[in-house]
Fold Cytochrome P450.
Amino acid sequence: MHPLMVTIRFKKQGIDVFRSQEELKKCCSKSFKGSDLAYLPSLSTNSYHNIFIRVMFSCDALDFRNFLSTTTLLALALLLLVIPKIYKSCWILVWRPWMLSRKFMKQGISGPKYKILHGNLREIRTLKQEAKLTVLDLNSNDIFPRVLPHFHQWRSQYGETFLYWQGTEPRIFISDHELVKQILSNKFGFYVKPKTRPEVLKLAGNGLVFADGIDWVRHRRILNPAFSMDKLKLMTKLMVDCTLRMFEEWSKQMNDGEKEQVVMMNVEFKRLTADIIATAAFGSSYVEGTEVFKSQRELQKCCAASVTNVYIPGTEYLPTPLNLKIWKLDGKINNSIKRIIDARLKAKSKNVEKDYGNDLLGIMLASSRSNETEKKMSTNEIIEECKTFFFAGHETTANLLTWTTMLLSLHQDWQEKLREEVLNECGKDKIPDSDNCSKLKLMNMVLMETLRLYGPVLNMIRSAAQDMKLGNLVIPKGTTIVVPIVKMHRDKAVWGSDSDKFNPLRFVNGVSRAANHPNAFLAFSIGPRVCIGQNFALMEAKTVLTMILQRFRLNLSDEYKHAPADHLTLQPQYGLPLMHRDKAVWGNDSDKFNPLRFENGVSRAANHPNAFLAFSLGPRVCIGQNFALMEAKTVLTMILKRFRLNISDEYKHAPADHLTLQPQFGLPVMLQPIKWK
Ligand code: HEM
């Protein structure tokens, strides 16, 4: 405001305004003592710093000196409190975005325009909502535009590397494999986990996934032994038991005589993997863990809805309806975990168990009693780690199993190949163990290819802990780096021109030789923060798949809509309904003599219309099949009319390949003549 305007305004209120300090002093000496004067220092800004005001108070009626000192102090205190906040807000809301955008622009990096407070969140929300209305072609693996439509759009507008704003947080999208390798394999803490939203911390726990620095080193050192190969071998048995329980449930749901069943696989796999992690890592049953899983699922919905909203620090303490819901769910999760921990402590104190147990929970509880600080975990830390493992330990593997069964249903040839491999390694009904699983090479390739195309983790994020030089780029401190796994796994330059195709054979020579870059496969990340549970997840997936392929043929139900979606992890938006056919081809009793299976004809005796190959099929089908059958029927009829047949005691059951299948020691049969009345 112009000084003249200020003067007029104060004069109107009966306040004298002086234009210089000298003028003011003259007046003071005449009618006021110095201390009775007030002037507003805040007015002393560049434009009107020479304006002083005289306040027309009655000095007798008021102890003006006291009044002045208290209010000045209060005002000063308030100013001291408010000014830094205002400064910080201006810095975050306006100055930093402007400055950083310029810095990146100078390096040739642009992106969508920053909008105050919201950044680009509104665009992200709109694009995601629009993408969710689409359904992909069944054979399309090009899911990037659907699951991360904003990245897809900005990439085509601004190039491979661009800057965008998650609210007021600057984020740079980097998909260059070499740069990503440098970021993820950095061991010096230059790229750390960025601050996480409070609701996400409540969901996934403030454990290993989000820890940094010495805390992370301590936690990882304590937890690593829980995932050693020896421990995993012991866990396979638990995985098998849980899977058998799932089959029992399925057979209960199946009506008598039914050979086909539609099952929502994503739901079943979530339940199964939850059961497995509850038993294998926490020694609790699914029932005890149910409360944790149920609440985590609810929380996940809250998080998926809120991550595209603006986050204002401190708002998590306001009693909004969403916060109230989050607090309630968090309370439930904490209580359930405490109950599981208490049960273990009780078992130990009653000497039911010698120690705390050698699973994940046991290892953590033992560490809480350690005298060495670098091997010690507090109770709170254990609770947070439990949340982390309950969440990370089942959600991801459930999605891996879901997408693998989807792809095997679409690619029946691969389903058959895997079944053959399973039957070779484990037979028709042998329970798989870790040794069998390690021999399943084709299955391993299929799992890798599924993780490449439909990896549960879509992105990883890191924050530059200080100004960093990355390739030709300078990344200012505090910038978040987004590593788009789902995009990088489809990079034609690295994975070849068929990168969008399902081709497990690309992994025939191992993961590091599947692409042009040895670290192109990022499903479990790389470097020091590589997924701690990857061997556990793969062992689990192999065990479950083996047991399914031994028993069922998988087909997609007609109701399936191909709509992969970003629900924090990659999930099928409308679920995955699959049709199971009882056992591979001939059913559970395939080893039994059961002529009734041919009741409805040869083509309907098995799950495959051409399963019966005794006379071969196609153009070279046996020319004499009818002759042979006629002959067999005639002879058998005549024998059966005359004799009752009994196997002789001398018979040795030894079918042998004598060009045709023959009884090696002949077939001595006792013929007992029938006397017809
Ligand atoms: C198919 C299954 C899985 C996939 C695709 C997967 C993927 C990943 C990825 C990409 C990371 C790195 C995240 C980042 O650095 O931002 C990670 C970390 C982690 N994963 Fe997994 N994971 C799977 C299964 C599991 C299982 C079964 C467990 C536990 C039993 C687990 C526990 C963890 C933990 C604790 C971390 C943090 C490790 C650290 O920072 O030191 N994951 N996982």
